[in-house]
Amino acid sequence: MPSVATREDMSTRLEEVLRQRFAFHCDNAEAYGSEFADLWRATADHALGGKLVRPRLLLDIHRALTPDTGDEPDLAAVDIAAHIELLHYAFLLHDDVIDGDLTRRKRPNLIGALAAGIPGATEEDSLHWARSSAILMGDLLLSAAILGFARADVPSHARTRLLDLVEQTILETVAGEHTDVALSHGIIPSDVDTVLAMSVYKTATYSFSLPLRAAALLAGSSVAAEQTLEDVGRRLGLAYQLQDDLLCVFGDHRAHGKDAFSDLREGKETAIIAFARATDAWPQISPRFGAVDLTLHEATAMRDLLRGCGAERFVVGLIGEQLDGVYALLSEAERAGQITSDAARAILVSASRLEGRQV
Amino acid sequence: MPSVATREDMSTRLEEVLRQRFAFHCDNAEAYGSEFADLWRATADHALGGKLVRPRLLLDIHRALTPDTGDEPDLAAVDIAAHIELLHYAFLLHDDVIDGDLTRRKRPNLIGALAAGIPGATEEDSLHWARSSAILMGDLLLSAAILGFARADVPSHARTRLLDLVEQTILETVAGEHTDVALSHGIIPSDVDTVLAMSVYKTATYSFSLPLRAAALLAGSSVAAEQTLEDVGRRLGLAYQLQDDLLCVFGDHRAHGKDAFSDLREGKETAIIAFARATDAWPQISPRFGAVDLTLHEATAMRDLLRGCGAERFVVGLIGEQLDGVYALLSEAERAGQITSDAARAILVSASRLEGRQV
Questions:
Q1: Any CB–CB contact under 8 A between B331 and chain A?
Q2: How far is A116 from chain B (nearest CA, A)?
Q3: Which GO terms describe its biological process (chains A, B) (predicted)?
Q4: For the purposes of burial, counting CB atoms within 10 Å of the CB of A297, is it exposed (0-12), middle (13-18) or buried (19 or more)?
Q5: Residue A132's closest chain B neighbor by CA?
Q6: What is the rounded radius of gyration, in angstroms, for the C-alpha atoms of chain B?
Q7: In B, residues 201-240, which contact A (CB 8 Å cutoff)?
Q8: Is A116 on the interface with B (CB under 8 A)?
Q9: Chain A to chain B, count of Cβ pairs less than 8 Å apart?
Q10: Contacts for A113-119: CB closer than 8 Å, 24+ residues apart
Q11: Cβ pair A185:B32 closer than 8 A
Q12: Half-sphere exposure of residue A27, counting CA atoms within 13 Å on the CB side?
């Protein structure tokens, strides 16, 4: 089965490219002092442990869009895929600074690890050191990602499209994060439309639309095909985020491994909450929503109120709408000859691999 | 005097380009909500008030290196100059977040202005909102700057050099800032060599070497000429920073407008302090160094101890060494035909304009 072998080739190649990029940066950093080189090494340790969901999505779809290229991985696609992972990690770092997060999936994140690294310092000093380092490393990885797009070994018209793509992606992701912070401070009111737009911009654009569009662009697809895949990415990304929101509140926490009810304890403005705010159940939910000391008993009662007021059903319905939209978009694109049926199928397969998993 | 007119033309053009860039971003931001558009407008207000020292340096030197181009401003040079100003403002924003600064030149900076903009919020919430916004806006301006370099309307070999230049600049500036944070937490020991290297990387690279190198590159100068100007920029930038350090401690505060003795109150690890640490005077200086409530009387006594231990004389000597180095580099470059005597003179004139002023 040559296609399976090539998929693994590409993943191996991707991991190699990322390891090489970090090794290069770590070596390079030595000239600026051992603390700076240590920061690069710690970053490499944390960043290389990811599941590479976004770059793998790019490579899968790229392969489906260029079925006749044989078993040799396309180097430009692998390179852009690796830089999408660097962009992801840059966003994570600044997001963790903004959210004050010190862990990710129950283990210390880079900030948590750096803060624990100064024996004898006060907590305030340790956190300042760790967060300052994360802001600066985020800047370096953001720069590295954009420079990777700018230096792509592709014809100049494709590079122009790549630069527009990375620019729009960064703008939307930052705008989404800014809206998320504004929602969390109550600076803008939480309603369903605002929360859905925020989710699309903050997550779907860079996690789904970006890899899909980059795959299309690098495979030589038309601008129309790329636009279709942008819409497909938004809808898949939104469906994915809504699924993740549902799991955290209504899911089986032993099965999906997320911190049970963490969104309720953190007061996260999800579509579930935005819907519930407009119902009669909200006065019963609101007093303990966002309480850091929310007990399991209280959380379970809150979950039942959220179910009772129709929020779960509403969000399940939204996911269905997004996926129906994806099927319609892909059928129409296939009919119009924008993409092959193989490519359409590959997108659905990749989407199903993501379902219910933490990206 | 056509050359004077052209210098003003370029400045006018530069201000126009910057205003247009911000106007474009403000318009574009409306699609992502009024809070996000407000952030862009507030950023434009603050960023457009600067003295444009770095872009003007680029344009002056570019003009001196291309004396025969007539009165028409070189559009690629104006464009890159504008993007250097965006890079500067991106660095300022993240620097202000890291340093916890809410003012610049005794007026609220962007963070201070944003924090004051939420009536009724707690101080902690206001600061979190303002700093999160500044991190995100810094990301956008950093991206805009790199994309400006990537899209420069120049031949591809020049664009390759521009990308290498902006990459090295960002790496060194971030490394310098990281060392500065490490010094402020006592994570690395403060000695003269470390502090001087930090100053070169944090300030000289992007404020001096970057505009000089970009000017050379865009004027079609050789790689050798660009390397010479990199060295010249490091030395000028270091001299400038040391002069600024001296002014804060030993200068006439009514004349230069800086907050009197602010470096002593903030515990800033300057070359003055690094020198004094290795002298017998340090035990008398150290107890009140970095005290936020340092009185004018104590600061004056500290200044006299710093003068007495030889720190002022030492730093004055360092400045002389840097400037001697600049003269030697420029003479040698002139002799080797790397740059014209007009260009060498223009660099010295630009340098003298900067002397003793806050960039």
A1: no
A2: 13
A3: isoprenoid biosynthetic process
A4: exposed
A5: B98
A6: 21
A7: 201
A8: no
A9: 144
A10: A113/A42, A113/A46, A114/A39, A114/A42, A118/B185, A118/B187
A11: no
A12: 6
Q: Cβ–Cβ of B121/A185 closer than 8 Å?
A: yes
Residues from chain A that touch B187, judged by Cβ atoms under 8 A, are 35, 118, 129
Rounded-to-integer distance, Cα A226 and Cα A206, Å: 14
Chain A residues within 8 A of B33 when measuring between CB atoms: 175, 179, 182, 188, 194, 197
Token pair of B62 as six digits = 């570019």
Q: Which residues of A28-54 are buried (b: 16+ CB within 10 A; e: fewer)?
A: ebeebbebbbebbebbbebbeebebbb
Among candidate residues A264, A239, A252, the one with its CA nearest the CA of residue A317: A239
Helix and strand numbers, DSSP H then E, in chain B: 17, 2
Residue A167 touches chain B, beta carbons under 8 Å: yes
Which among A33, A98, A139 has CB closest to B132? Answer: A98
pLDDT tens digit at each of 359 positions of chain A: 344 446 777 788 999 999 999 999 999 999 999 999 999 999 999 999 788 999 999 999 999 998 776 666 689 999 999 999 999 999 999 999 999 999 988 899 999 999 998 888 899 999 999 999 999 999 999 999 999 999 999 999 999 999 999 999 999 999 999 999 999 999 999 999 999 999 999 999 999 999 999 999 999 999 999 999 999 999 999 999 999 999 999 988 776 656 778 999 999 999 999 999 999 999 999 999 999 999 999 999 999 999 999 999 999 999 999 999 999 999 999 999 999 898 899 899 887 776 544 33
Structure ipTM? 0.95
Q: How many CB atoms lie within 10 A of CB B293?
A: 7
Structural domains of chain A in order of their starting residue, each with its CATH number: 1-153 (1.10.600.10), 156-359 (1.10.600.10)
E strands, chain B, are: 103-104, 107-108
B168 touches chain A (CB under 8 A): no
The whole-angstrom distance between B346's CA and the closest CA on chain A is 32
**Is B39 in CB contact (< 8 Å) with chain A?**
yes
- DSSP string computed for B138-172: HHHHHHHHHHHHHT-SS-HHHHHHHHHHHHHHHHH
pLDDT of B73-127, one tens digit each? 689 999 999 999 999 999 999 999 999 999 988 899 999 999 998 888 899 999 9
